Each structure stands twice: as structure tokens, then as C-alpha cells.
Amino acid sequence: MDLIFDINNRIQRIRSGFESYGIDALLVSKPSNVMYLTGRETGYVLITEDSLILWVKDLYRDLYNDVYSDKNYIFELRNYDKGVIATHINDIGIKKLGVENISVSSYERLRKEIEIELIICDIVEKGRSIKSRYEIELLKKSAEIARRGMEKAYEIINNIEKDKKGMREIDIAAEIEYEIRRAGSETPPFGEGM
Known about the structure:
The protein contains 10 helices and 6 strands, in the order ααβαββααβαβαβααα.
């Protein structure tokens, strides 16, 4: 099972919920929801019954080419420019557009730009709450990486106690980070404050 396969299943589940929310289409912009639907956390997504559009800036199209260029990727990629999404939505005949729980100012701005009924819905969040086999495998991998990092931290602390000499926090963090990177982590384990 892979990401593209899982994305296809997510989209099917989202579309199957349109009727219960009373919507014809869904506009998604929250990075975590965009990530869930597209595999990357940038851009704007429009899901209708018969189309999937992802608007991104050129920079991200190039940066995330690994996902976007997959022959099975189901989104039509379009360049993002101010006003293109509203123009597209107004042109295609959607009557009721689902939108995420957005700020009042964002809602008002969208309502002025788009000439249709907006319905706030949590369809993506509900989909995200149910984990697929693919997501469960990723969680298992994350847990294994965290376990290895904690084992390394335990080892370091035990050695410090045995040797009775101190160690700088930054050196401890570096050793733990090295271990979890070896285990497969792609991101730093500690925030900027370390």
C-alpha cells in the first residue's frame, strides 16, 4: 500500500460524504488537511464529483515533483495566482460549496469572492480521524523511531551516571538525533530551542 493509493481512497470517502453535508464541492486550504488529501501540505484543493484540482505556486510544484509527477496522482495541478480559485468556482456552476472551519474574516472574504452558498463542514477532519492501513504503518514506523531515540537517551544518561562526568545538552541531543535519523526519521526531533 502506498501514499497515492491511500490518497485515492481518501478522496472517495470525502466525495461519498458530500450528500450528507449538502454540498456539491469542497474547498480545502488548511495545510494539515491539504497534506491529508494531496500528500504535501501546500496549496488549495477543490474537490467536485468529477474533478480534483490542486492549485500550487511554481516553487512547490518543483519542490514536490516526487509526488506530483507520479503517473497515478489524481489531482490536476494548476498554478496558483490571486483570484484564480474564485473565478474557477464561479465559472463551473457549483451551488453549495463546503469549506473548512475558517476564521470569520476568511469566510467573509470568500463569501464576497464566490457567488454561491458556503457551508462550513468538518468532512476532512472526520476522514482524518479514521486511520487507514497505510497510516497505521506510518505510525508504527514513527513509534519504532521514537523507541530507538528513547533507548539512546537512556543509554547516554546511564553512561553519564556511571562515568560521573557531565555532558552538554547539545551533545546529548546530537547523539539522539543521529540515532533517530539512522532509524529513518526525516525531520529533526527537537525544536529550534535546543
